[in-house]
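Hi R.,

Here's the chain you asked about this morning:
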Amino acid sequence: MDINTVNSPLLLVALLIPLFGTLGVMFRGKEENFRETISCVSSIALFITVCFMIKPVLNGKILLFNMFDILPGVSITLRADAMSMIFALVASSLWTIAVFYSMGYMRGLKEHAQTRFNACFALAIFGAIGVAFSDNLFTLYLFYEIVSVCTYPLVAHHQDAEGYDGARKYIVYLTTTAKAFLLPAMILIYVLTGTLDFATNISTGIFPDDVNRWVVTMLYVFCLFGFAKNGIMPFHHWLPGAMVAPTPVSALLHAVAVVKVGVFCTTRVMLYVFGVESMDAFNLGIPTAYFVGFTIITASIIALSKDNLKSRLAYSTVSQLSYIILGVALLTPHAIEGGLIHIVNHAFSKITLFFCAGAIYVVTHKKYISEMEGLGKTMPFTFGAFAIASLSMIGAPPVAGFITKWNLLVGSVEAHQLGILFILLASTILNAAYFAPVTYRAFFGKRPEGEQYTGIKEAPLSMLIPILIAASISVIIGIFPNIMLQFVKAVTG
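And the predicted structure, written out as tokens:
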């Protein structure tokens, strides 16, 4: 074992906490308060456990825990390094916030099957934490599939024709692409290298020097499309379709357990399987950046056309996810840092936006932006938080998204890619075009005739407090970016 590698059972503890939380919810599901107490305690315990790993990882240690050996070079092994911690901290902290929000939302609408909802919610976090702490491609693939299966009941929660249709599209897209592209790529990588373990740095990758260039290119394309949770066009249609789920599920899908799993897996494989040097030598990076640049612009244009608030946010997610892949694909230090930090920045800002959409629906039962004229006077805190999160998505200081845009712009100049610079600037204008009207209508629009202002009527505190916390964190990590950038800089070295 390397001098910087430490065997740590904390990894197994972190993995088991949401699993035991799931079992607790299922066995005591009829007792509403007890069920939700288990969810809350589990989420807080997971976050604390992940926090215990911060110090050793920042000191340059890699935490490992081997669970099973399957073949030589193939095992189910957990690992915490700097990149793991970026996603693990996001997933564990947002689960804590989302659990409290979900209580207010589900009770406020008197939703059915709340026990199943809470159990699947916890299972999805179990899969996400497994992805974050995967030491190799096999473990990553295993937990990636677990997330897909566990979130299917959440998407189909309403159990109506629309719910089943959205869930069917969701599961077919994600499992088919994983098996058609990712599984054969994983087998061939093992045949070529004799291992599926990730490299310990982002430079070298795991392929031998004499490997065929076209084989590596094919494997790279298969991995890019195999992780369809990353929302890259044309494998993005599942994402808007999944918006039929309750808003806490939409928030979970877009900020924590699904799309972030997709982009984390994609960038993890780009950096720790293929490596910066191989991607540069085989000219894989810049074509990828332009390819996902098409997704960024096209999804933003589609978002402009959507009047349904959740649909607009969904296409915004399709666009924003590709910032992460674009940054890593540019292969310059600033661009990689901008891409990876957007995993954090997008998570807190997008969960705020979906939380706000849910609060608006619970209080007013309105889904469409055109119906929200003047609602800012009735729900000032909700729409204020929406405005803050929108500024982050646009990339305006001092909110978190500014750090993303700044690093990506600097990185595109470092890479001498003026085309990417243009894509980033154009997408920023489009971001403003589809986010600003929501806030403007809410605060400066006039209520329709017959709808009188009756004073402030916000969502329940169990929903409003998580909204304000998530929005505040977006501002805090915008003003103090080193809170998370220290992990990103540890990845880039």
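The longest helix spans residues 161-193.

Let me know if you need anything else.
M.
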